[in-house]
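During the no-cost extension, the postdoctoral fellow (Dr. R.K.) reprocessed legacy sequence entries with the updated structure-token encoder. One reprocessed record is reproduced below for audit purposes.
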Amino acid sequence: MRLFIALDLPAELREAIGRATAQLRNEAPGARWSKPEALHVTLKFLGETAADRVPEIEKALQAVGAESISLKFRGVGFFPNEERPRVMFCNVEAPKSLHDLALQVEKALEAIGFERETRPYIPHLTLARLNSARNVEKLIRAAAPLTSYDFGATRESEFHLFESVLLPSGSRYRKLASFPLAKDSS
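Re-encoded structure tokens follow.
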């Protein structure tokens, strides 16, 4: 199973992002665009994982706790940069508590044998993968009006363990478990 941990997004926000970026889809043939229903904020990617480890992962994630998190989605950019773009992304503006949550997830899973991520955590939504795209310069120019565009905001009160099922039409994500952020104080 290919697994990852992420925050999900409300349908309205996904649709707003999809509408705002729709005109860009024809600018760079060969780009692999994320479907709006697949947009999420990754906290940790686990990759290929044996199915029998899922209960252990769920147990580790149940110990993670934080308060609900407000997220703003503003502007687009390119990883690693516009000179060598591999990914087009939407910026996620979030409080320090999102980074703290990602770190808690990282530590909980490291404790059960998953390798710790060495790169710094940069919250984002992957809009397109550009590895085999042509005319990327045209896409960068067309995306310029969206560099500070306000796509919307949400407040998330849970995070999820997802399975990524690879299909010829692209990845399909299936929620395996959900974990509340705001622990019940009663």
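The mean pLDDT is 93. The beta strands are 2-7, 32-33, 41-48, 69-79, 87-93, 124-129, 150-156, 158-167, 170-180. The remaining legacy entries will be reprocessed before the final report is submitted.
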